[in-house]
UniProtKB/TrEMBL annotation:
SUPFAM superfamilies: YjgF-like (SSF55298). Pfam families: YjgF_endoribonc. InterPro entries: Endoribo_LPSP/chorism_mut-like, RutC-like_sf. This is RidA family protein. It comes from Congregibacter brevis. Residues 20-150 form the Endoribonuclease L-PSP/chorismate mutase-like domain.
């Protein structure tokens, strides 16, 4: 499946609607927030910042997109895996906040790509995450980012992405 990239019109539409409305327009239903797979929590809030733990491309059926970019997976497949990871991270935010409109800014994204040693297109893969975040949150979704290659990732997943967001007020447990 070829990656679809957001247009300026899509980004402007996100600025005119709440993130929840924008998800509906995009035909995206957020899943239940994925549970942590080890001894950690999905996110920690300190002040008005939430630090989200790394999540991967878990599908609705519980399976994950796995494999190395540049060997097992194409850039387009990696892009879609990163997009799926954005959906999972938004599900965590929704569970923590109750309303995605409480996100005032996506501050920073760290995208880790399970890469073949010769693969150097990590930014193109992590664009799948960044593009969807900007489509949903508009200007407040524009963020600082790192996209790096890793020799391996847990369970062989294609990508793992963590995120820092600024929110208004305290979260509810």
């Amino acid at each position: 499946m070829m990656a679809s990239f957001p247009t300026q019109a899509a980004e402007n539409s996100a600025d005119n609607h709440s993130p929840e409305e924008r998800l509906l327009e995009l035909g995206i239903t957020l899943p239940a927030a994925p549970s942590p797979v080890a001894n950690y929590v999905n996110g920690v809030q300190t002040g008005n910042l939430i630090f989200l733990a790394g999540k991967g491309p878990k599908r609705a059926d519980g399976s994950e997109v796995s494999g190395k970019l540049g060997k097992d997976l194409s850039i387009e497949e990696g892009y879609e895996a990163a997009r799926l990871t954005a959906i999972n991270q938004m599900a965590v935010l929704k569970a923590m906040l109750g309303d995605l409109n409480r996100v005032t800014r996506v501050v920073k994204v760290l995208g880790m790509v399970n890469s073949d040693p010769d693969f150097v297109e990590q930014p193109a893969v992590i664009n799948g995450f960044s593009d969807l975040i900007v489509e949903v949150f508009g200007e407040r979704g524009r963020h600082a980012r790192a996209a790096v290659g890793m020799a391996s990732l847990p369970r062989g997943q294609a990508v793992e992405i963590e995120m820092i967001v600024e929110v208004d007020g305290e979260t509810t447990p």
